[in-house]
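Below is a filled-in request sheet from our internal design queue. Each sheet records the structural input a requester submitted and the sequence that came back. We keep these sheets so that new team members can see what a complete request looks like end to end.

REQUESTER: design group, bay 2
PRIORITY: normal
MODE: inverse folding
CHAIN LENGTH: 88
BACKBONE (tokenized):
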């Protein structure tokens, strides 16, 4: 019998990693916005994301974004593990 994944553990792990990445990204945007935009622009095959980026980001929208990322990651991680367990 194949090893099954613990849905809660996968969900919490993905949510934690996503939350950490979000905080690092928000911090980099605050400290070095031009360099961060250039870095992420290269990840999107040279698309100039500065054209669609907001000039200022409020603390409130950053907190809401963090909550959205964590909740979305919880659901995604749980669903991934649940589907994996059904397949194996």
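RETURNED SEQUENCE:
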């Amino acid at each position: 019998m194949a090893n099954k994944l613990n849905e809660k553990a996968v969900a919490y792990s993905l949510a934690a990693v996503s939350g950490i990445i979000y905080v690092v990204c928000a911090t980099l945007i605050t400290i070095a916005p031009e360099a961060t935009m250039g870095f992420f622009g290269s990840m999107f095959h040279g698309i100039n994301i500065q054209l669609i980026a907001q000039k200022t980001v409020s603390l409130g929208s950053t907190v809401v974004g963090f909550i959205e990322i964590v909740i979305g990651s919880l659901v995604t991680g749980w669903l991934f593990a649940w589907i994996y367990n059904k397949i194996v």
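SHEET NOTES:
- The CA atoms of residues 18 and 69 lie 7 Å apart.
- The mean pLDDT is 92.
FILED BY: M.R.
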